[in-house]
Design goal:
Blueprint (H helix, E strand, L loop, with lengths): L2 E9 L5 E10 L4 E5 L6 H9 L6 E6 L2 E2 L5 H4 L1 E5 L10 H11 L4 H14 L15 H13 L5 E5 L7 H18 L2 E6 L2 H7 L2 E6 L2 E6 L1 H6 L4 H6 L6 E4 L4 H4 L5 H6 E6 L4 E3 L11 E11 L2 E8 L2 E5 L13 E6 L4 E5 L4 E4 L10
Parallel strand pairs: 3-8, 3-9, 6-7, 7-8
Antiparallel strand pairs: 1-2, 1-4, 4-5, 9-10, 11-12, 12-18, 13-17, 14-15, 14-17, 15-16, 18-19
This protein binds adenosine-5'-triphosphate (ATP).
Length: 360
């Protein structure tokens, strides 16, 4: 089932619009992540899809059917929340069966379905236990099985992994992806964790302040951010932002004049700064900066450089190229992860495709 929003707005208090004129389509059978900082409107968007909240304006479609006025039950969505919301007095089997019991599905049929789902989410050995006897990860598996029991049209997951420890998060993240691929259910997954979204999603919608910043594949988001917000929000450590004033002449042979005129900042990912003599230095640019600090964390390097009176971070300069504590470092840039943006934060040039993006 695909989901379509047409100019959807929402306010909770009839004053400030928490979401403003959202129009987008969530593709059928794919996993889409809603990603953004706290308060950007992710859960509100999810609740509009589920029917728990009616929009203040606009229309919502499931395939071609207008569901704007339908409630959550009528939309047949499955929901999983971060706190699992399992019934503590019921066994795992009873929890998974519960939605089917409410729907008056025959006992033999619901037991078969529950057993099939338990197998899918790997909780077959826990069926007789109560939620209190399970780990967080196991509880979340049961919650997912329960939400899938009635073959929902869409599965909605609201920060489902945030109560789990780091290792379990990664394990469950991969597990959810496998379950989604095995069932083919259209899934919307809310997270504020970019790593989670990058690993699990077919498409990522980045929200900020109630507006869509960019909506595309994880690789596109990383390689071709549409604006400064996305470029800084995605990528860890964060991209460096350097004022372009005084550097324009370095770029004049590389960049069309029109783009250069508009550009005010250079955005460079830390891994895109390389030693000038490196074979990876793909752009015909050379800069000098003062080494401020360097640290190695296992396979990772963190080199701080004072450049244009600003401290920037480089993670791809090898320790062999660092000779003295305060040396002048000559560095260059890779073609990937290098962008120019204008006053409004819009990316107007991207080194990786050497074309003007957003040329209007
Ligand atoms: N029931 C409500 N009444 C009034 N304002 C609300 C309500 N729920 C959310 N908001 C406001 O709407 C905005 C979006 O909230 P929402 O919960 O959708 O954000 P979010 O991106 O899911 O945040 P988080 O990651 O912190 O859960 C926030 O400014 C929030 O304060």
């Amino acid at each position: 089932m695909k989901v379509r929003f047409e100019d959807v707005s929402l306010n909770y208090d009839k004053q400030k619009e928490v979401l403003q004129d959202l129009s987008f389509e969530i593709p059928k059978g794919k996993l889409t992540c809603l990603l953004g900082p706290s308060g950007c409107g992710k859960s509100t968007t999810l609740n509009l899809i589920s029917g728990l909240l009616p929009p203040s304006k606009g229309r919502i479609y499931f395939d071609e059917q207008d569901v704007t006025k339908k409630d959550a039950l009528g939309r047949r969505v499955g929901m999983v929340f971060q706190n699992y919301a399992l019934y503590p007095h019921m066994t795992v089997l009873e929890n998974i069966c519960f939605p089917l019991k409410m729907a008056k599905v025959k006992k033999t049929d619901r037991l078969k379905r529950a057993n099939d789902l338990a197998k899918l989410v790997h909780v077959t050995d826990e069926l007789a236990k109560r939620p209190g006897e399970l780990s967080g990860g196991q509880q979340q598996r049961v919650a997912i099985a329960r939400s899938l029991a009635k073959s929902p049209s869409i599965l909605l997951l609201d920060e489902p992994l945030s109560n789990l420890d780091a290792r379990l998060r990664v394990e469950m993240r991969d597990e959810i992806r496998k379950i989604q691929l095995a069932t083919g259910v259209t899934t919307v997954f809310v997270t504020h964790d970019q790593d989670e979204a990058m690993h699990i999603a077919d498409k990522i919608m980045i929200l900020n302040d109630g507006k869509i910043q960019q909506y595309t594949t994880p690789n596109n988001i990383y390689d071709h951010p549409s604006n400064l917000f996305v470029a800084k929000f995605i990528g860890n450590p964060e991209a460096n932002v350097i004022p372009l004033a005084g550097l324009e002449s370095n770029f004049s042979s590389l960049i069309p004049e029109k783009a250069l005129k508009k550009a005010i900042s250079l955005i460079v990912r830390p891994e895109s700064i390389v030693s000038a003599n490196s074979a990876l230095a793909a752009l015909p640019l050379k800069f000098q900066g003062q080494l401020v600090d360097s640290r190695r964390f296992g396979k990772e390097m963190a080199v701080k450089i004072n450049f244009q009176d600003k401290e920037i971070l480089a993670t791809a300069i090898p320790s062999e190229d660092l000779k003295s504590a305060t040396q002048l470092l000559e560095f260059s840039l890779k073609t990937t992860g290098v962008f120019l943006c204008d006053q409004a934060g819009k990316v107007v040039w991207s080194a990786s495709d050497e074309r003007i993006v957003n040329d209007d």
